[in-house]
Amino acid sequence: MADPKGFLNHGREVARSRPVEERVRDWNEVYVPGSLLPIISKQASRCMDCGIPFCHNGCPLGNLIPEWNDYAYREDWSAASERLHATNNFPEFTGRLCPAPCESACVLGINQPAVTIKNVEVSIIDKAWDSGDVAPRAPERLSGKTVAVIGSGPAGLAAAQQLTRAGHTVAVYERADRVGGLLRYGIPEFKMEKRHINRRIEQMRAEGTRFRTGIEIGRDLKATDLRKRYDAVVIAAGATTARDLPVPGRELNGIHQAMEYLPLANKVQEGDYVAPPISAEGKHVVVIGGGDTGADCVGTAHRQGAASVTQLEIMPRPGEERNAGQPWPTFPMLYKVTSAHEEGGERVYSVSTTHFEGDEDGNVQWLHLSEVEFVDGKLTAKPGTERKIPAQLVTLAMGFTGTDVENGLVSQFGLELDARGNIARDAEFATNVPGVYVAGDAGRGQSLIVWAIAEGRSAARGVDRFLTGASDLPAPIRPTDRSLMV
Questions:
Q1: What gap in Å lies between CA 210 and CA 206, rounded to an integer?
Q2: Does the predicted model carry a pTM greater than 0.85?
Q3: % of the chain with per-residue pLDDT over 90
């Protein structure tokens, strides 16, 4: 273990953020480069040898958190990286993007601030990259079997890397022009610079994984033709059908889904545009949806020079501490202030949009809303609370309802869907079509990056067994497993 008295001697310290006035002028990550390493050994020492590490239960990957905390405390970075990679293909992604259910389940968190698990994780992997400890792991021999992976988000990449290392020849199909899925175009640069994706892709290429971009299965290439080419297929296409807002005025110009808005800002950083086709510059921006995607829209609007930014959430404002209905070690719904919220804007809770109002040219100008409250268990508008706010750009960040069924992928394969609109699968992550498997949000529904990677790893084991009759690949979760929540 780390320092037996570490949690008594040291308080919680997190990565330092760059000043707001500095970071909103660029798209670099918000944290001060190198600020973690001087404090991370002390922070890792706070891991308290709790006997039963509930952080394992909080993380679907089953990360060996006490082990790599101990190595980080001792500054044995090579050993820490090995333990980190034993359960997680891409810790630099999760260390930056995961909301850290492991920290919510930390035993120390019962009566003290939890261990900074995310910060330790990202420190280890960044140190590993800098020191050359991350290298390609090509298979010793090839199986002669071929696998197609549809989608290059975290689930698809994890499945592809596991299957490549098992000796299969793997090709990843991505409908966008670059590899990465929502990691590439849905996550703003200020949350994760895309160089982290790029070097992982280069590692995977060196291991033997092949990538085919700009090809949408179902439209550009029929699913049936793909099935004929490969011995197995893994569908990791995500849950990309966005929830819409069917209220009067929805057809006005200037109202966009978040995933129409955010990718364009990222494409500017990739050099595809000088300025984004959809920009918040000089506009009153309203973001509908209080989750992480909404926060990404808020931070993007700040950097584009919005006149004002307002984020709306239909649910009441969460508390700042656990309540009795969300006991440890479950993941609590707490009031969260992200880096984007630190940068300004207004957050409004318990409100619902009633309609939009536009100008004579069909451009949105106003958003009408009313306050809501729970009546007999249902959200109901409160009479007399209607008002309007300026809105010249509106982004809808209200989540996703299921996988894309309009591009032909589901129908061409002949896949069955479950009651929630996700692709149905069995205990091995196999669909009703022999040799076709599903991983990530396409089968689970909208979820977290750690669940996506865990699904990709688990589905890879199912595919490996299908192709060879047995598998030594790990399967950290079952399709029916769910987050540690109440």
A1: 9
A2: yes
A3: 94
